Structure formats: structure tokens, C-alpha cells
Amino acid sequence: MHCPFCQHSDTRVIDSRVSDDGSTIRRRRECEACNERFNTFETAELKLPAIVKSDGRREAFDERKLRVSFDRALQKRPVSAEEIDLAVRGVIHALRLSGERELPSLRVGEFVMAELKKLDQVAYVRFASVYRKFEDVQAFREEIERLERDLPGLEGLQLPLLEAATDKAKK
């Protein structure tokens, strides 16, 4: 490892620590020539599948795009940055577990929807409306009804999606 200060080619590791989630190793280094200290981070480089778009184009997986999708769906929702990070890691983990070299973008969307369903119902419906290309209010109603059927145990954990849904539950 070259020293970033003097470009000397010999540095030594003073200390190594594993990150909290176990995915990164932080190494504290010292240059043999100028005695400056700096940190390096070591992560495993795992190849994620290429994403096949609906028009047939292939793109390398881009974590930044994934994060933007989560941020848009969760905009102004009571979800912490840590929860979003866990959801992003969950999607990436699902991509790795697929074992595929290429995955259709629709499958990635399904992974995102599964994570959003666990995080926030409103964000889930927001994402689903774009992902499934809702044409009218009826499509929203159907998705909300499907969500309520799939997640009966979450009634007290999140705010209701529609006031009518709350009224039905009270009767």
C-alpha cells in the first residue's frame, strides 16, 4: 500500500478492526518513511448480477440507484437511515443469493417491494404505484386491500393507509 502523503511504497498495519456488520475491515496504517498515519478499508468484492431492463438493455447493478428508489418511496416517512440501510443491504443480499449472472429489473423491483412492505405501508404503495404503473384510483385501492390482507398483524405498528380502512376495522 502506497502512502497517500509521500507515496512511499512501504506501510505497515498498526491495528485492524472489523466493522459492526462484519462486512468491512478497517486498517490503521503507518508509513515507514514519513511516519504519517492513515486508514484503509477492506471489503470483499462480490460480483452482483447484471440488470436486464424491460427494453432488453443490460446494466451493471448500481447501489446508488437502489438507494435513490428507497429514498423517493420513503420521502417524509418516519423511517430511520439505519432502517433504510438495512433494507438496501437486504435487497443486495437477495441479489447475491439469487446466484444469477443476470436478473430482470422486475425481479429487483420485487425485492425492493418486499423490503418496503416491512418498513412502511405508504412507501410500499408509493413504490408499487410506479413499479406496477397504476392507471387509476381503483388500482391503488386494490393494492391497499392486498396489502391489508397480506399484513394483518401490523395494524397497531403503522398508521392506516386510508381513513375508510380505519372505520371498517372499528365496526
From TrEMBL:
Pfam families referenced in this protein's UniProt entry, alphabetically: ATP-cone, Zn_ribbon_NrdR
Cofactor section: Zn(2+)
Keyword annotations of the record: ATP-binding, DNA-binding, Metal-binding, Nucleotide-binding, Repressor, Transcription, Transcription regulation, Zinc, Zinc-finger
GO biological process: negative regulation of DNA-templated transcription
Zinc finger (unnamed): 3-34
ATP-cone domain residues: 49-139
Bound cofactor: record note: Binds 1 zinc ion.
Keyword Zinc: yes
Family, per entry: Belongs to the NrdR family.
Function comment: Negatively regulates transcription of bacterial ribonucleotide reductase nrd genes and operons by binding to NrdR-boxes.
Protein name, as recorded: Transcriptional repressor NrdR
Gene: nrdR
